């Protein structure tokens, strides 16, 4: 591998950071950065100098370091607005991102007391549980668990598989209007399968967003849990959404 000439007049690590930042901003460097050995060979320096350069890029918000996985270029943050009448798919559309859903599994089950309470169902009621992934421009940005009351949503699993979003599936089920009646946001450590799906380390917390949606009559129709990588998605709350 041929070495890359560096600008002069500043510490080596800063020169390397400047060169790498230019590559990132020009979209010539995307995804995962080469490892320390490869970068040290490229710039003909030792690994300690590379670590200083990478730390500087991290401090500038240009890269993120995932323990055990490497260093990645930091993509633009996706804004998720917690609106009364909006969902994550709406936020993607506003940001000109192509959203889609990849359903991983679905099954009917007896709901826990907590789920029954949120959906205003009698104890021991059955619900449809759906596990899915939200994608933006083809990349996984969230891991979702959704609960829908049965028997009202018996056919929902089939409709959902042929829809681009939950909102689209609701419309096909004859639910043209719905609203968010509850939102809770917390930070939690991800389970292994969640971390793997989001391509992040298990030591990094996820944004854990719980939402309940109701139809026009006020009857809850969905309780959902969405897990977002905190360094790629930000939650927006404005006065009109409170």
TrEMBL record:
Signal sequence residues: none
CDD domains xrefs: WHTH_GntR
Matches recorded under Pfam families: GntR, UTRA
Gene Ontology biological process terms, A to Z: negative regulation of DNA-templated transcription
Sorted UniProt keywords: DNA-binding, Transcription, Transcription regulation
Residue intervals of the HTH gntR-type domain: 10-76
Domain of life: Bacteria
Single GO molecular function: DNA-binding transcription factor activity
InterPro entries: Bact_HTH_transcr_reg, Chorismate_lyase_/UTRA_dom_sf, CP_lyase_PhnF, Tscrpt_reg_HTH_GntR, UTRA, WH-like_DNA-bd_sf, WH_DNA-bd_sf
The keyword Transcription regulation is annotated on this UniProt entry: yes
Stored PANTHER family: MANNOSYL-D-GLYCERATE TRANSPORT/METABOLISM SYSTEM REPRESSOR MNGR-RELATED, MANNOSYL-D-GLYCERATE TRANSPORT_METABOLISM SYSTEM REPRESSOR MNGR-RELATED
NCBIfam families cross-referenced by the UniProt entry: C_P_lyase_phnF (TIGR02325)
Name of the featured protein: Phosphonate metabolism transcriptional regulator PhnF
């Amino acid at each position: 591998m041929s070495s890359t000439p560096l600008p002069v007049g500043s510490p080596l690590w800063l020169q390397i950071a400047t060169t790498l930042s230019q590559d990132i901003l020009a979209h010539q460097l995307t995804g995962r950065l080469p490892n320390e050995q490869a970068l040290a060979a490229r710039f003909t320096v030792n690994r300690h100098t590379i670590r200083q350069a990478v730390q500087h890029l991290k401090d500038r918000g240009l890269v993120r370091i995932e323990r055990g996985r490497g260093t990645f270029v930091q993509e633009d943050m996706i804004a998720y607005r917690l609106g009364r009448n909006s969902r994550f798919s709406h936020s993607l559309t506003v940001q000109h991102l192509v959203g889609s859903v990849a359903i991983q599994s679905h099954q009917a089950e007896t709901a826990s007391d907590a789920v029954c309470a949120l959906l205003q169902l009698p104890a021991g009621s059955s619900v449809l549980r759906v596990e899915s992934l939200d994608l933006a421009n083809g990349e996984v940005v969230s891991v979702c668990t959704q609960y829908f009351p049965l028997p009202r949503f018996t056919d929902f699993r089939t409709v959902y598989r042929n829809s681009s979003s939950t909102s689209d599936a609701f419309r096909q089920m004859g639910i043209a209007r719905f609203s968010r009646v509850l939102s809770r946001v917390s930070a939690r450590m991800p389970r292994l399968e969640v971390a793997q799906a989001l391509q992040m380390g298990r030591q990094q917390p996820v944004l854990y967003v719980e939402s309940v949606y109701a139809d026009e009559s006020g009857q809850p129709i969905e309780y959902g849990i969405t897990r977002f990588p905190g360094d790629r998605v930000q939650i927006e709350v404005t006065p009109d959404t409170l």
